[in-house]
Amino acid sequence: MKITLSQYAGFCEGVQRAYDIVENITKDPNVKRPIFVLGSLVHNEDVVKKVEQMGVQKVHVEGPLEDFFEKIKDKVGTLVITSHGIGPKLYELARQYGIPLVDATCPRVIKVQRLAKNFFERDTQIVLIGEKNHKEVRGIFEWAQKIAVLIETDEDLCGLVLDPNKKIAILSQTTQDQEFVTRAAANIAKKYPHAEIIDSICLTTHHRQTEIKELAQKNDVVIAIGSPESANSTRLWEIARRVNPKSYFVQRPEELKRKWFSGCEKVAVTAGASTPGWIIADVMKTLKEL
Among 105, 131, 147, which residue terminates a domain? Predict the structure, then answer.
């Protein structure tokens, strides 16, 4: 059985950067302890466990941000912002409460945040294509002062109403499905020809999604590795499944089933941007032993 591993599988630059930042601050005696990360550093349980083993704890925002800071002000030494980013209010409150921040936001996400902020300040209507409950999207939405129009589904597109007399800018979640973003942007531009379309999907996401379509066509079976919490991992699986119904999603090697590979000659393996290399290596080893 021939096994082909995606050349883009595993940590993207933004996730690797976030992981390295956290690893480095745990070794820096000048960083105030205890260190807390604002939610999961990345959407992968195995990475989260590794981070916890470094002595970094996880904390979640519950309720208004002001109440959150009141609760943590005497408990947190340093607060880490995850690769997904966060809204501007947290930065302001951290300064007010004197809590040091370590910002591990992906630079590509920061770019979209700044665009949202700039378009808002220029009184431009913002359309944000992405998953409404995704951490990255919520953060970008807050940089747009919570007045962006969120588009997650085709149903959202059908109900979209904008002011044709105002400028319009279209942004997207950096890990969105390229096909959906292209279709949605074209739909909006057809109705509002003056809309400005900004390609804010990260290049690595684009490469992964383009490659998995080709791999799904050329292979008998596709294995997508990632956490169910990871939007970009599950999206790779969904894209593969549209092309090849024998596409399967696993989080760890023990989830592989021998029956999937009955009569199979060629297998393609991909992995999301938050999937660590050690998990990919374990899955590859198990596949070779089947």
Answer: 105
Six-digit token string for 154: 């085709």
pTM over 0.85: yes
Q: To the nearest whole number, what is the mean pLDDT of the chain?
A: 96
In this structure, are 70 and 123 located in the same domain? no
Give the C-alpha separation, 155 to 177, whole Å.
16
Task: Quote the CA–CA distance of 45 and 201 in Å, as a whole number.
Answer: 24
Number of domain units in the chain: 3
Tokens of 227: 């956490």
Contact predicate 204/273, CB 8 Å: yes
Determine the Cα angle at 282 with ends 276 and 287, to 5°.
Answer: 130
202 vs 255: CA distance, rounded Å: 30
Q: Report residue 115 as tokens.
A: 């665009």
In this structure, what CATH number is given to the domain that contains residue 6?
Answer: 3.40.1010.20
Confidence grade of residue 166 (pLDDT, cut at 50, 70, 90): very high
pLDDT computed for residue 179 by the predictor: 94
Q: Which domain holds residue 32?
A: 13-105
- Same domain, residue pair 155 and 191: yes
Q: What is the total residue count of the chain?
A: 290
Same domain, 66 and 101: yes
By annotation, the residues acting in catalysis are 136
Task: Tell which of 181, 197, 213 closes a domain.
Answer: 197
Q: Residues 99, 113: one domain?
A: no
pLDDT, tens digit, for every residue of 9-60?
Answer: 999 999 999 999 999 999 999 999 999 999 999 989 999 999 999 999 999 9
**Position 200 pLDDT exceeds 90:** yes
225-240 CB burial, b ≥16 within 10 A, e <16? bbbeebbbbbbbbebb
Report the amino acid identity of residue 111.
K
Helix ranges (H only) for 162-267 are 178-191, 203-218, 231-243
